[in-house]
């Protein structure tokens, strides 16, 4: 599943290759791709044709592109995209053969490269939603700003995290508290901060929260730096688990391999129908609470 850095790479690609272009035609090739556009595929197509996509923004794992009329006045709407488990937004030459799982195609009035939405498992989707005055679409507004966003407030995050009475890994995955951190980056950030994911948030010190936030930022930034070049090939592979970052994972998916810090074998534990990976020596489990 694409995590925040991968989606940010896609946003940068859209900003570079799509923003400012006027849609000539939209072809919806699979109705599931626009199922969140409740008025249907024809309405979706009509809402975009002849209009300009003015910029590319991201909130968590959602992308949105504000729409303007032909005379550049804002339409009060935005094209919203979510990549789901396997979605890709590709910018390609028109001569490039269609992908097997091509779900939607956008052509532009400048006759240049197409924008294609490709999604093998069709959990992702596109919709045109209201976004008055170029502001964030209402459906995305509840998602917390993430640490890659310039508006992220570290002090507020620290205070909110310590107020939650939950396990620290659950808090990291809570999109209302911190946006865009998925299972992989949560495990990597916890390892960097030497915290076990089941540590209770209300008992973390300010310094531990600061270490954790630094871990989140570092792991996201490093991943972004590696993924940041992949859009040069006009192709972002978001299939599978964090493709280009996987060579650099310290704990995630590394069960029985030595911890890069202390050499102790990494352990896998089940967590919310998924897995958590940690070093039992660097990240000891919290002791049971005294009653
Ligand atoms: Zn270790």
Automatic annotation (TrEMBL):
Keywords: DNA damage, DNA repair, DNA-binding, Glycosidase, Hydrolase, Lyase, Metal-binding, Multifunctional enzyme, Zinc, Zinc-finger. Binds 1 zinc ion per subunit. One of its GO terms (molecular function) is damaged DNA binding. DNA binds at residues 101, 121, 164. This is Formamidopyrimidine-DNA glycosylase. It comes from the Bacteria. The keyword ATP-binding does not apply. The gene is mutM. The active site is at 2 (schiff-base intermediate with dna), 3 (proton donor), 61 (proton donor), 274 (proton donor).
């Amino acid at each position: 599943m694409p995590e925040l850095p991968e989606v940010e790479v896609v946003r940068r690609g859209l900003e570079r290759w799509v923003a400012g272009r006027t849609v000539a035609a939209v072809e919806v090739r699979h109705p599931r791709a626009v199922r969140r556009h409740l008025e249907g595929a024809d309405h979706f197509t009509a809402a975009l044709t002849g209009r300009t996509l003015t910029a590319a923004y991201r909130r968590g794992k959602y992308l949105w592109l504000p729409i303007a009329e032909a005379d550049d006045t804002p339409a009060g709407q935005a094209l919203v995209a979510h990549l789901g488990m396997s979605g890709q937004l590709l910018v390609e030459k028109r001569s490039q053969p269609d992908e097997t799982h091509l779900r939607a195609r956008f052509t532009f009035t400048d006759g240049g490269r197409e924008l294609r939405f490709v999604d093998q498992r069709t959990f992702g989707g596109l919709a045109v939603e209201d976004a008055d005055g170029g502001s964030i679409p209402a459906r995305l507004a509840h998602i917390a700003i993430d640490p890659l966003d310039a508006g992220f407030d570290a002090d507020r995050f620290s205070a909110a995290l310590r107020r939650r009475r939950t396990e620290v890994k659950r808090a990291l995955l809570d999109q209302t508290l911190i946006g865009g951190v998925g299972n992989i980056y949560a495990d990597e950030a916890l390892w960097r901060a030497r915290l076990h994911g089941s540590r209770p948030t209300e008992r973390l010190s300010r310094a531990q929260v600061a270490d954790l936030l630094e871990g989140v930022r570092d792991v996201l930034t490093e991943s972004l730096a590696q993924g940041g070049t992949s859009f040069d090939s006009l192709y972002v592979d978001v299939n599978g688990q964090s493709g280009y970052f996987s060579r650099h994972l310290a704990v995630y998916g590394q069960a029985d391999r030595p911890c890069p810090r202390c050499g102790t074998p990494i352990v896998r534990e089940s967590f919310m129908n998924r897995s958590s990976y940690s070093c039992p020596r660097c990240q000891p489990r919290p002791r049971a609470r005294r009653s």
